[in-house]
Design a protein that fits this description.
Strand content: 35-45%
Distance between the termini: 35 Å
Number of domains: 1
Shape: globular
Helix content: 10-25%
Amino acid sequence: MTIELIPDSDDRLHSKALRFNPREWDEMDATIAAMFELMNTHDGMGLAAPQVGIQKRLFIMQSGFGKKYVCINPKVLRVSQTRDIKSEGCLSYPEQKVFVERPTDIRVSYQDAKGNSVTKKFTGQMARCFMHELDHLEGIVMSDVGTVA
């Protein structure tokens, strides 16, 4: 399976993604593998399905230590009061950086690639990445939430 990043002019990048049942999507494993390949080709940390034209509530992330996450139908359960402002990039906007304020710690729930429910705490860069990719599922791009770096 081959996938590509869609351009900013594509409405799917600016539309809310749809909740889905991962057990009912035959192409999910191939799509996830293709997303990780595309993300790694572009030296990314995360990639949301809408960025490749798929309107499903799915994104992937990879930590600096190589741990991979598949997040399906994700929700934020709690955010810390502590926030910071840092520069963010995006595979959909490779030449741009924006400063975005985000919580430093979050507790989230999502389904993994097998459809199992997961509740997890993310901190620092992984919390920031989770929130960035979740924005994509809401049709929000970084220029909607940040100021140009």
